[in-house]
């Protein structure tokens, strides 16, 4: 991640982050020092992975991860969950996610639901600071990656986080096959 000229401990940048993310960093109790979670300032116009990779180079694609919000439904009961997969894959919503949530139907949550429930900006949602009652599903490939670049909760800025730190977040479940090959 040395290609980013300005990266610093995310804990020093809480004023730039949405409150749920800032609170999670202030209350950090992960398996490693919070100083290992880094913040890098990026242009919000290139927050989407494809644009970020186009700007910084294709090497970034293999180190990037995405966090998406899904809604699992069983009858009238709806469970929102965060899913973290490498950017080279897609979330297996109708297979792994649906089974893991015990839902009859699962789909990506509507944008208003995702941002309203998370307190984060669409296009920048991160697993750090998601509501404590949401399951957090983390693909095993993410957990095994030394560091991933992921949203900061806002479109401006990204976090550089050890995969093991994401796997150790409250409520996290590491799952094989959560991310499936795109295409």
UniProtKB/TrEMBL annotation:
<dbReference type="InterPro" id="IPR007214">
    <property type="entry name" value="YbaK/aa-tRNA-synth-assoc-dom"/>
</dbReference>
<feature type="domain" description="YbaK/aminoacyl-tRNA synthetase-associated">
    <location>
        <begin position="62"/>
        <end position="167"/>
    </location>
</feature>
<protein>
    <submittedName>
        <fullName>YbaK/EbsC family protein</fullName>
    </submittedName>
</protein>
<dbReference type="Pfam" id="PF04073">
    <property type="entry name" value="tRNA_edit"/>
</dbReference>
<dbReference type="InterPro" id="IPR036754">
    <property type="entry name" value="YbaK/aa-tRNA-synt-asso_dom_sf"/>
</dbReference>
């Amino acid at each position: 991640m040395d290609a980013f000229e300005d990266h610093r401990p995310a804990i020093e940048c809480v004023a730039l982050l949405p409150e749920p993310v800032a609170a999670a960093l202030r209350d950090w109790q992960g398996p490693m020092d919070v100083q290992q979670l880094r913040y890098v300032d990026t242009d919000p116009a290139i927050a989407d992975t494809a644009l970020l990779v186009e700007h910084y180079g294709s090497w970034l694609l293999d180190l990037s991860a995405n966090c998406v919000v899904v809604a699992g439904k069983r009858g009238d009961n709806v469970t929102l969950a965060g899913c973290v997969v490498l950017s080279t894959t897609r979330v297996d919503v109708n297979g792994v996610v649906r089974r893991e949530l015990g839902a009859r139907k699962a789909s990506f949550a509507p944008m208003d639901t995702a941002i309203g429930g998370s307190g984060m900006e669409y296009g920048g949602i991160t697993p750090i600071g998601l509501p404590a009652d949401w399951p957090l599903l983390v693909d095993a490939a993410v957990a095994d990656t030394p560091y991933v670049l992921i949203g900061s909760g806002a479109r401006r800025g990204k976090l550089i986080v050890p995969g093991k730190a994401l796997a150790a977040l409250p409520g996290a479940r590491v799952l094989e096959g959560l991310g499936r090959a795109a295409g």
